[in-house]
Amino acid sequence: MHPIGTVHYLVLSVALLLIGTFGVLTRRNIVVILMSIELILNAANINLIAFSRAVDNVNGQVFAIFVIAVAVAEAAVGLGILIALFRNKETVLADEVDLLKW
Amino acid sequence: MLETAFFYLFALLTLGGGVLMITRRSAVHSAIWLIVSLMGVAGLYLLQQAEFLFAVQIILYVGGIMVLFLFVIMLVNLDQAAKERQFVKPWWVALAVLLAIGGEFAYILRTNTGAFRFAVPVEQPPPAGGNTEILADVLFSQYLLPFEIASLLLLVAVVGSVIMARKRA
Predict the structure, then answer these.
(1) Could you say which of A43, A71, A100, B151 has the lowest number of CB atoms within 10 Å?
(2) Which residues of chain A lie closer than 8 angstroms to B116, CB-CB?
(3) Looking at the structure, do residues B58 and B138 belong to the same domain, yes or no?
(4) Which residue does chain A place closest to B30, by CA atoms?
């Protein structure tokens, strides 16, 4: 068995990114779409931490903190929009929100 | 050896939680599997000696964001949505595209593995203090301005989401 190196973390991060992207592209429920976005951001964070370890430099971890801060802001605003949407349209399915479509 | 075992354990938690999260019908189940996945990511941070981020991940994601998600799930009536089709019709198109992208990534990672082998850092005296101390040092000196901008972003997000979610008068 190989010792765990940076490439292992990169492969894991790619897999998590693809899972999250699949959720964003295919799920209809907006709540689950927002959760999938959290998965994608976590995949980016795994990358940042792995490279931070590999080059022995703490800057990557600082970036990860900023990514987490942005993820929190995104979740708060996204869920606020979701509540406003549900109040007006009575739906949480992304493909039923087509006010701008025609 | 132990590190290898733990890596695969946390990887399994992360990926298994992720897959189960996007396939569950109920949004509450999705949220719980997302917690499992994020816990796995936290374990990976610990393996990478990022102890501070491990704590932040648990406190912020599992303690903060997940509670926010569960609150919204309870505010919004999801019973109707759970009875409907969960995936968009052409989900196999997304699957095909993502498999292609995944194959591309696999090819790049396979052929360019050498690019990720970094020069061994010069023998330096071990930095004083633990991970949190070093991180705070860098964050509050080199990255002070981005830090303040991030706090401003959070303020705007808080005000924005309150305005968005409140009842129209």
Answers:
(1) A100
(2) 5-7, 10, 54
(3) no
(4) A32
Query: Residue B49 sits in a domain of what CATH number?
Result: 1.20.120.1200
Range of the domain at B144: 130-169
Domain count, chain B: 2
- Contact residues, chain B, for A5 at CB < 8 Å: 116
Per-residue pLDDT, averaged over A26-52, amounts to 92
Residue B119 reports pLDDT greater than 60: no
Give the tokens for residue A101.
Answer: 């479509």
pLDDT of residue B19: 94
How many alpha carbons fall within 13 Å on the CB side of residue B95? 8
Distance separating alpha carbons of residues B43 and B89, to the nearest angstrom: 36
Q: Which of B46, B72, B109 to mutate to test the interface with A (most CBs of A within 10 A)?
A: B72
Q: List the structure tokens of A46.
A: 């795994």
* Pair (B72, B141) in one structural domain: no
User: Does A38 contact B150 at a Cβ distance shorter than 8 Å?
Assistant: no
pTM of the shown model: 0.89
User: Is-contact B31 B61, C-beta < 8 A?
Assistant: no
